[in-house]
Specification:
Elements (H helix, E strand, L loop, with lengths): L1 H14 L4 E6 L8 E7 L2 E7 L12 H4 L1 H5 L9 E3 L8 E3 L2 H19 L6 E2 L7 H11 L4 E2 L1 H17 L13 E5 L3 H4 L6 H9 L3 E5 L12 E3 L6 H8 L1
Parallel strand pairs: 6-7, 8-9, 9-10
Antiparallel strand pairs: 1-2, 2-3, 4-5
């Protein structure tokens, strides 16, 4: 198995004319999927899943596969800019990093002096490894207001699940389920972070029956043993009929 993987990596390296293949971790979400980065010179030409990674087992989602496009996009900002016109005018001026940091610090300290530290909110998106730094900055600044991905992503997901289902359902694909029901969720396209498709696919290959409830013939519905094509808005009737 290891020899076949090594041979495949070598063949792909030669195919893309790469100098080297670097093991790394995908940063498109906080899932921690292992990746193989194919590098030619100083440019990433391909990203693939790492078969040795125990998290994703060589698989990778569309965002992870497209990460190189983000890195090399011609419109990617690699330096700070300052708006010099009205909002929406599209007028920007390139400034140095020192200017940008000084401007940000000046604005933050001005608001702190005028309105108090509690008037300042620190917020950022996904990437849990930076969370400690943000909280430390907030503590130093004197504000208790920090918004993380958990507040506007994971938190609402939990709250909605509790209101709808009475708790937070945990999908258990790993322990060889005999039947899987996917209701109103196109997990191939809209799978949330940390919900890996590898375990789901392994369960189906191990013989699990698949029931899909969806008015649309999605990719996952096309693989279903039973596809319940409901009329939109009739999910409640089906649920009550099963209760």
């Amino acid at each position: 198995m290891a020899d076949s993987i090594a041979e495949k990596i070598k063949a792909e390296r030669e195919l893309y004319g790469c100098d080297r293949v670097v093991k790394s971790v995908c940063r498109m979400c906080h899932g921690g999927c292992g990746v193989l980065v194919y590098v030619k010179g100083e440019r990433v030409v391909r990203i693939a899943g790492d078969p040795d990674c125990p998290i994703n087992h060589g698989t990778l989602c569309a965002k992870g596969l497209a990460a190189a496009q983000l890195a090399h996009h011609p419109q990617r900002l690699t330096y700070p800019v300052r708006r010099v016109g009205p909002k929406g005018s599209g007028r920007w001026q390139r400034i140095s990093w020192d200017e940008a940091l000084d401007l940000i610090a000046e604005r933050i300290l001005t608001y702190k002096e005028r309105f108090g530290a509690e008037s300042i909110v620190l917020g950022y998106g996904t990437g849990r490894e930076n969370e400690g730094v943000i909280y430390r900055f907030a503590n130093t600044l004197g504000t208790p207001n920090v918004l993380t991905a958990g507040h506007f992503c994971y938190g609402p997901r939990i709250a909605t699940s509790i209101i709808t289902c009475g708790g937070l359902p945990v999908v258990d694909y790993e322990n060889r389920p005999r039947c899987i029901m996917v209701w109103g969720n196109n997990i191939v396209i809209t799978n949330p972070d940390e919900y890996k498709g590898w375990a789901f696919s392994q369960a189906l290959e191990a013989g699990a029956k698949l029931i899909v409830v969806d008015p649309r013939l999605t990719r996952i519905a096309s693989r279903a043993d039973i596809w319940l094509q409901l009329r939109p808005g009739t999910d409640t009737a089906l649920a009550l009929g099963m209760a």
